[in-house]
Amino acid sequence: MSREALNTRLGELLSRPEPESHAIPRAPEGGLSLFEPPSPEHRFLPSLPAHLEQALSTAAHFMTLANARPGEEGLAAVLDAAKWGALLGDPEWVRYALRLFLAHHPEGRALTVPPLHERAPHLVLPSRRTMPPRKGSPGVPGAEVWLDYFREDSGLNEAVETWRVLYPAAGHPDPAQPSRRVLPARHAEAFWHTHQQLLARYDTERLSFGMPRTAPLQDFTAPLNEAYDSRLPGFAPRPPGLSIQGVPGYGVEDHATRRDRLCAAASSGLLWHGDTPIDIDSVEQLAHTVESTPASLDGEAWRDPLGPHGAYHHLGELLLACLRPPRDKSGLPGVLAAPATAARDPLFYRWHRHVDDILDGWRSTHEAPHDLSEHTPVRMRAWMTEGPAPMHQSPDLLLCLDKDVPGLGSPDFDGQRWGEEQFGGEHWDGRPPSFPMTTHVLHTHLAQRPVRLPDGSEVLKPRLEHEPFSYFLRMENLLPREQRVTVRIHLVAEPFVDERRMWMEMDGFVHTLRPSERAVIFRPSRLASVVNERGWPAHLLLPRGRREGMLFRFQVTVTGEGQETETSGEWGYPFNRPFPPGQRIVDLSKRPDVATRNIWLIHEEG
Length: 606
Description:
The structure is a single chain. This protein has helices at residues 3-14, 49-68, 72-88, 91-104, 116-119, 148-151, 154-166, 187-208, 252-268, 283-291, 312-321, 346-366, 415-423, 529-532; strands spanning 172-174, 177-182, 270-273, 276-279, 378-379, 397-401, 441-452, 458-466, 469-477, 483-493, 504-513, 518-524, 550-559, 594-604. With 606 residues, the protein is an alpha+beta fold. The chain folds into 2 domains: 3-362, Di-copper center containing domain from catechol oxidase (di-copper center containing domain from catechol oxidase, Orthogonal Bundle); 378-604, Sandwich (Immunoglobulin-like). The strands form 4 sheets. It has a 6-stranded mixed β-sheet with strand order 8-7-14-13-10-11. Strands 5, 6, 9 and 12 form a 4-stranded antiparallel β-sheet that branches. A two-stranded antiparallel sheet has the order 1-2.
């Protein structure tokens, strides 16, 4: 069978038909069981350890089939098995198992997963909730609807769905030995960093409307004012004022007990294994226990919701997904039950803010700060002329709108050469005002993109987009030898500059500097590592901003080979740890290997 035919079959298997009715009670009469695997009578919930285990076992079977007959023949056998599995059980856990195979097996990665809006258009439709007047208080219930365009973005929800495939809590089957599980190094830290960055971006969007930052959901008895009606088939709406209720076998008190244990661990630096205190030696260890995974301190009990620390992160999502009014007899969960729709719900962000607070609480109190005393031997200038230098106006961090760069759209355009001609050589000491093609303003707008339904009709959906731009970074190698450096670019809204968790990762790449070179580095925003390596939606690279303009700050941080250690890592450096005592984030801008630049973001409405 050809690769094209295999991809066609794959698209058909991953497509999700719209349910015939909202009233499809798939849970047994006795209620939801945390311990039973999925069956035709159970809705597949990947938050449940037993359900995840079933999907992982199926993915391991797919890998065994692919290993037995490499190439197209083995892939065809996998798709045959997935088809029969979907007919005999819940198609959702079979689809999830198939996604696990495609993500983690070398043969599976040869096939293409259709985007979410193509395989499940009914899951990405806008809720079209009524907008409250902008003149109202941004903190009142109902104001969350202003952020529906962000939370309901199909690219964002697809990214969250994909993260759950790339980082399943129980690890993934080993392609070479499918009966064995692989839990990648720094798995939990990567999962934590991904959600922390999502929260930073969400709170920045909130700021553009004058809304307060997301409040952590840590009080399990207080009424929740954030109502949400996705208007998607198969999911129940949630009115305001509900409080968290337990599910059979797991009560609110059980969850609160595990909250208190984990919060105490973050504060004290100790996790308890029975009567034995264990020093937490890394955020990875705590994150594994919070999630939980096979690397949890609970050991063999990591799957048990009633274990010492339980599956706290996942079961928190589950309890919120099961919030229903007392008179609701549909048995349907909210959108938090499914990875492809979870990010639509405002409570998704409140819950993850609470989990992030636990992890960062330990990090801020017990983790050693980065050693920022040694500089990389490169120089990016803060200013050029005599006298006091204005803050955050580095002439070596240049931005250009792509439309202002002649020929950039041409396939043979050499951006590196063009940048060197414009900003290097005899222009090396030129300041931004002398470069008419540079800008200190970036632009976003709300576009209307069609979602095509199976019957051929189209529904327009709002999508935040930005005008394409490129970086031109000037830096001087201070060594008479070649240097291989890592360049990291972050962005933050001005009100958040002193809060390290609010710095948004934009890009990170490696560049080799020639001996004593004065380099001009061309880096188009379309190559952003957070998009191409981390899966963040390209159209959401920039926050919204405001119609009148909103002040942001870019920061470029350069690290050399000697600084690329396991502790600095790639996950959020240099903002992933507390700063040394007495040092503020703004002090970084005084270093020669760091450049900062203020920028305005203007949102163009209409």
